[in-house]
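Appendix B. Chain record.
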Amino acid sequence: MQKKQSEWKWQWEKIYDTNQWLFTEWIYPTKLKDFKGKTALDCGCGGGQHLNFIAPYCKQGVGIELNTYSVARKNTKHNKNIKIIKGDIAEIKLKQKFDFIYSIGVLHHTDNPTKSFNNIKKMVKKGGKLIVWVYSYEGNFWNRTLIEFFKKHFFLKINKKLLWIISNIINALMYIPIYTIYLLPLRFLPFYEYFENWRRLSFKRNNQNVFDKLNAPQTFFIKKSTIKKWFNPKEFKQIHISHYKGVSWRVSGVKK
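Structure tokens predicted for this chain:
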């Protein structure tokens, strides 16, 4: 079983994401209205914000969370059709099967992303849909090398309050190229598409992004070849794979 990681509790107690439009882009081509009257399982629900997005539509929403169970419960308590369960998505066994299962930004932070995926897919109904959004290996050279190196040897070892201050400074400095060079039609630049989203988000939300990159205890970058193995056509149909903003995979499939 994966050990609890206090880094996530510190992060989600401080941050709450209200950008519903971003969630809808991550689950594309699924739409929020598709959850109407359905049961849904959020695997690694963090602060519970995604469950709050689907709550007006779904019949029942269940969130599994190992590290921030209390935060998710607090943030979703106003929705009577939402329930939070404490558990490890790589190990948990639920008797119930769901119409929708999604895992947004979580699998790549688990001890074994493939093991976690193989476990959550067992809980999808026949004819139900599984949706994942993960960091991609492709397009993330600088994150995989430079950022991960400094995170391992420095950022993970310092006080979280200091890390939050550092992330704010890095965030502010990034605005200089993002609002100058990256406004030019130079699509060959690294993270060009990614920074298009950056300009749509608030400074605080962008700082969450920076902090997350420096705070996550572990990060695996998932190759397209791995994604194709996960969503094997023998098990799934109507498979959708798209490279989102050049840095992540958004993937879904209907269980046969």
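Further analysis of this model is presented in Appendix C.
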